[in-house]
């Protein structure tokens, strides 16, 4: 009936004041709130600093360029994602800005996770007999886990894009291809598989740490290997925390309390990735590698 307020069951966020929004705008905020300007600026600046540091390491340190390049790329995507959220603060109803921000922030952990996988293979390749730390060949491990991440992130992005499509078509009075709930289930499927595989990697990493004592290492070599692996474990834990948060959000549903709470997004989405990248930025991992000419050193891995 004309004059009645626009309502969507379960939605409690802002409503577009324009009752006939132009193409590309939704009647509701797809974020379910107005993104905080300060959080967007902090995210863009902090990840920008990490990106510059990782590019510096990549250019200065041979042998770990893939590792630092992956982290720099992940940080760049985070910068773009939070820059898009700054634009979302200006106009929270633009669907394409939401999709850009969601895509970049959700996809950014792929190169970060790939660097974490690669870090374990560095340990296996550069310390004497450390190949015994792994239960599968290093290339197989990296290919498997990165491949699963790419597929599951693609599924999540499709789900997020469909949320925008549903809202846009609804605005036009057209029949959407699916409901918001169905789009959320697509997101949930991708997240569930991603969480399961990353949890499996963390188990393999803990297993590798437990096997270090069986290697014939002593002194500085042993301490450096453990420092590398525990750093990897700490960074991986925060990436996993972020992934579990995403899974919990989608389990509750798109219009659930968790997805509507910007504080939870900041604490469990932005902060864990900042900590993970910070851990991997403080000390360039090449400093822990055995020096060329060390006794029993394995072959030097080049990239």
From TrEMBL:
<feature type="transmembrane region" description="Helical">
    <location>
        <begin position="36"/>
        <end position="59"/>
    </location>
</feature>
<feature type="transmembrane region" description="Helical">
    <location>
        <begin position="141"/>
        <end position="166"/>
    </location>
</feature>
<feature type="transmembrane region" description="Helical">
    <location>
        <begin position="265"/>
        <end position="289"/>
    </location>
</feature>
<keyword id="KW-0812">Transmembrane</keyword>
<keyword id="KW-0472">Membrane</keyword>
<keyword id="KW-1133">Transmembrane helix</keyword>
<dbReference type="Pfam" id="PF04479">
    <property type="entry name" value="RTA1"/>
</dbReference>
<dbReference type="GO" id="GO:0016020">
    <property type="term" value="C:membrane"/>
</dbReference>
<feature type="transmembrane region" description="Helical">
    <location>
        <begin position="96"/>
        <end position="120"/>
    </location>
</feature>
<feature type="transmembrane region" description="Helical">
    <location>
        <begin position="186"/>
        <end position="207"/>
    </location>
</feature>
<protein>
    <recommendedName>
        <fullName>RTA1 like protein</fullName>
    </recommendedName>
</protein>
<dbReference type="InterPro" id="IPR007568">
    <property type="entry name" value="RTA1"/>
</dbReference>
<feature type="transmembrane region" description="Helical">
    <location>
        <begin position="227"/>
        <end position="245"/>
    </location>
</feature>
<feature type="region of interest" description="Disordered">
    <location>
        <begin position="1"/>
        <end position="20"/>
    </location>
</feature>
<feature type="transmembrane region" description="Helical">
    <location>
        <begin position="66"/>
        <end position="84"/>
    </location>
</feature>
């Amino acid at each position: 009936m004309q004059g009645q307020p626009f309502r969507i069951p379960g939605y409690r966020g802002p409503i577009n004041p324009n009752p006939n929004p132009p193409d590309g705008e939704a009647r509701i905020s797809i974020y379910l709130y107005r993104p905080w300007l300060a959080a967007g600026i902090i995210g863009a600046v902090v990840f920008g600093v990490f990106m510059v540091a990782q590019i510096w390491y990549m250019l200065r340190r041979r042998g770990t360029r893939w590792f630092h390049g992956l982290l720099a790329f992940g940080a760049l995507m985070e910068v773009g994602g939070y820059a898009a959220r700054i634009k979302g603060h200006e106009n929270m109803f633009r669907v394409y800005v939401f999709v850009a921000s969601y895509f970049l922030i959700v996809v950014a952990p792929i190169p970060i996770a790939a660097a974490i996988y690669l870090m374990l293979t560095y340990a296996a390749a550069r310390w004497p007999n450390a190949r015994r730390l792994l239960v599968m060949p290093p290339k197989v491990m990296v290919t498997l886990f990165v491949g699963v991440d790419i597929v599951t992130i693609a599924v999540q992005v499709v789900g997020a894009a469909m949320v925008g499509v549903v809202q846009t078509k609804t605005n036009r009075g057209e029949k959407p291809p699916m409901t918001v709930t169905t789009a959320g289930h697509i997101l949930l499927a991708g997240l569930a598989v991603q969480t399961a595989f990353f949890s499996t990697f963390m188990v393999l990493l803990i297993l590798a740490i437990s096997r270090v004592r069986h290697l014939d290492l002593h002194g500085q070599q042993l301490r450096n290997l453990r420092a590398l692996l525990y750093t990897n474990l700490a960074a991986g834990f925060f990436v996993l925390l972020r992934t579990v948060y995403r899974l919990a959000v989608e389990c509750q549903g798109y219009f659930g309390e968790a997805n509507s709470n910007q504080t939870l997004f900041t604490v469990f989405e932005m902060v864990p990735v900042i900590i993970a990248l910070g851990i991997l930025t403080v000390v360039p991992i090449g400093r822990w590698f055995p020096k060329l000419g060390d006794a029993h050193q394995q072959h030097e891995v080049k990239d």
